[in-house]
Write a structure and sequence with these properties.
By secondary structure, the chain is α+β, with helices and mostly antiparallel strands. The chain is built from 6 helices and 9 strands. A 7-stranded mixed β-sheet has the order 2-1-5-4-3-8-9. Strand 4, helix 4 and strand 5 form a beta-alpha-beta unit.
């Protein structure tokens, strides 16, 4: 797994969101920087805490013209349930074949409770309007992900 780093050009993509609409990174970048965050599985405790933190930070993110795109291998229907249940106010994108996760270098071997399997590693990327990665978030807890993100955004 070779994860993209600060300064790398982010791979372009178009994926279906929770409303079954095509969302592209290129279009999102026209409005300002984009926070692309990868999470393993919708409707699980850690992913819910992380998503709700970003939901609650929307006013600060909007003030900095940051668009949030959450990406997981979940199907569109599950993303719709996740967004509805927790009133998420940003796009959740379905990467069922994990092609985009592969392109960002966040799909790889994981270990959990003695099992080894392939899955998404929980990482986030702040991407500038030029398409280059401004910051890689790889050290955070799900409950404080939004605070770590805001600290970096406020320092730029």
């Amino acid at each position: 797994m070779k994860t993209l780093a600060q300064g790398d050009v982010a791979p372009t993509f178009t994926l279906k969101d929770q409303n079954d609409e095509a969302i592209s990174l290129e279009a999102a970048l026209k409005d300002g920087p984009v926070l692309v965050y990868f999470y393993p599985k919708a409707l699980t405790p850690g992913c819910t805490v992380q998503a709700c933190g970003l939901r609650d930070s929307k006013p600060q993110l909007d003030a900095n013209q940051i668009t949030v795109l959450g990406i997981s291998p979940d199907p569109v229907a599950k993303l719709a349930r996740f967004a509805d249940k927790h009133q998420l106010n940003f796009s959740l994108l379905s990467d069922e074949d994990h092609a985009i996760a592969d392109a960002f270098g966040v799909w790889g071997e994981k270990k959990f409770m003695g099992k080894v399997y392939d899955g998404i590693h929980r990482l986030s990327f702040l991407i500038g309007q030029d398409g280059k990665i401004l910051h890689v978030f790889d050290k955070f807890k799900t409950k404080d992900h939004h605070e770590v993100v805001m600290k970096v955004i406020d320092s730029q």
